[in-house]
Amino acid sequence: MMRGLLAALALGAATALGFAPFGLFPVPFITLALLLRLWCGASTAWRAAALGFAWGLGFFLAGVSWVYVSLHQFGGMPAPLAALATLAFCIYLALFPALAGGLFKRWQTGRTARDILLAAAVWTLAEWLRGTLFTGFPWLALGYSQTLPSPLAGFAPLIGSLGLSFLVALGAALLALGWRRGAPMLALTALLVFGIGLRGTAWTEPVGEPLKVSLLQGNIPQDLKWNPERLPLSLETYQKLALAAPAPLVVLPETAIPLFFDDTPRDLLRTLTTNGEALMGVAVRTREGGYTNGAVAIGRDLSVQAYSKRHLVPFGEFIPPGFGWFFSLVRIPMSDFTAGPALQKPLLIAGQKVAPSICYEDLFGEEVLAFLPEATLLVNLSNTAWFGDSLAQPQHLQIAQLRALETGRPMLRATNTGMTAAIAPNGQVTAALDPFTSQALQVEVRGFQGRTPYSLAGDRPLLLLCIVLLSWIVRTRRKTAKPS
What is the CA radius of gyration of the chain? Predict the structure, then answer.
């Protein structure tokens, strides 16, 4: 058993190679297929769950190690406590592959076709649960590994990132359980070929005239950003970048200026809107006395529209009940934001209807759909300086690629330290700045209109399919198990 657990741990760690920046998209198929073989060989559901847990622990320790950087280097938590907190977080995340393993073994039928569908269904529901429970953390869902050039990328406008996770699990199960049989291998081949064919399908169409946009990457060090004495550094950096790269739309990252919006110098706002309009990430006071993490659109006449971040990060942007003690161990400025309303309208900027998202918020695909079909352009404002020079930046860019694919809309990203980029509606990164540089990325973009199938239905059809499959498999298994 110990040998199997170590093998599962190693397979999980290797799975991180399937994601950015490595981009070895076939790896998750292989590692999950080998995990399924281990599950099939387990003698009990508990042993299969233990194997799933070991796989998950290896996966998340390798893939989200940047949590330690955030807690220790920038949050000021002592190194041993930061390491323990990161380990505890990864242990929690590993419970979901453990759940999938336990359920698979518990309901395994011994019939190849049914067990292939069972594996795909339990894996998908476990990933959905991870992305929902306690506000959700769907980071490194297997579907995110299947951006271009993966053949499965073509399915994203139909079934979204969770649907891609289903297809990865399905493909892994076909490999694991049907590799000696012709029909499963033929099904896997057909799946990949069909995906390649779908990549050429245009689900949406351009609308309006091209728009020149300047995306500003200030590269303000996180350990200096909130120092009041360093405020002039932030103001001067963004003024210089805006003057050096004028455009009808200038976009600044999340909390670009460490002030409340109503305290932001008017000279800076006038500079940003010299040639048009601006969108900036900044904290905004509420009438109730709190503050929101905002994206503020500023017109040439300094008129204002505002979006307030809806999906806040636990421990980073709000204090979960009973965890006040945690903030005595870390130094996180502005760590008690108020969430914005669930339903907000797109921002009307420079002739576009912009669907804004702030940092980790674009991790939740169905929430982005709330802006459609009105929105013509997606814009994400981020400050991943919290995670240093780690895997977080390229992983987050890959997440944004899926949002563009799912909606058939271009996605623009303005970040403090990286990765500032422009993404086409087909998920292709068309331009990007080097991380940890102070630059402006000037791009030309057109808005898009229309609906992808995923934008119409979201994840509901897939979840219903998984529940129906499980119900059918469990019911038929019980019938066959009854004595005649």
Answer: 23
Sign of CA dihedral 230, 388, 251, 437: positive
Residue 314 pLDDT > 90, yes or no?
Answer: no
Q: 240-254: b or e for each residue (b if 16 or more CB lie within 10 Å)?
A: ebbeebbbbbbbbbb
The answer to whether residues 21 and 134 belong to one domain is yes
Question: Does the pLDDT value for residue 395 go beyond 90?
Answer: yes
What is the rounded CA–CA span in Å between residue 421 and residue 102? 41
pTM score, whole prediction: 0.95
Same domain for 296 and 353: yes
Here the CATH number for the domain that contains residue 280 is 3.60.110.10
Residue 22 and residue 166 in contact, taking contact as beta carbons nearer than 8 Å: no
Instruction: Return the minimum-mean-pLDDT range out of 43-57, 310-324, 455-469.
Output: 310-324
Residues 174, 270 within the same domain: no
Identify the bridge partners of residue 411 per DSSP, sorted by sequence position.
Answer: 378, 423
- Do the Cβ atoms of 294 and 306 come closer than 8 Å? yes
Residues marked active site are found at 254, 309, 359
Residues 231 and 345 in one domain: yes
- pLDDT digits 0-9 by tens, 50-82: 999 999 999 999 999 999 998 888 788 899 999
Residues 179, 215 within the same domain: no
Do residues 220 and 331 share a domain?
A: yes
Number of domains in the chain: 2
Phi, psi torsion values for 443, nearest 5 degrees = -135, 160
Asked whether residue 303 falls in the same domain as residue 413, the answer is yes
Which structural domain range is residue 328 located in? Answer: 207-451
Nearest to 252 by CA among 311, 208, 298: 298
Asked if 150 and 178 sit in the same domain, the reply is yes
Written as six digits, the tokens of 131 are: 């992305």
Residue with the bigger pLDDT between 75 and 175: it is 175
**Listed ranges 213-227, 310-324, 417-431, 468-482; the one with the highest mean pLDDT:** 417-431
Q: What are the tokens at 14?
A: 């290797």
Distance of alpha carbon 220 from alpha carbon 243, whole angstroms:
18
Report the distance separating Cα 431 and Cα 276, nearest Å: 22
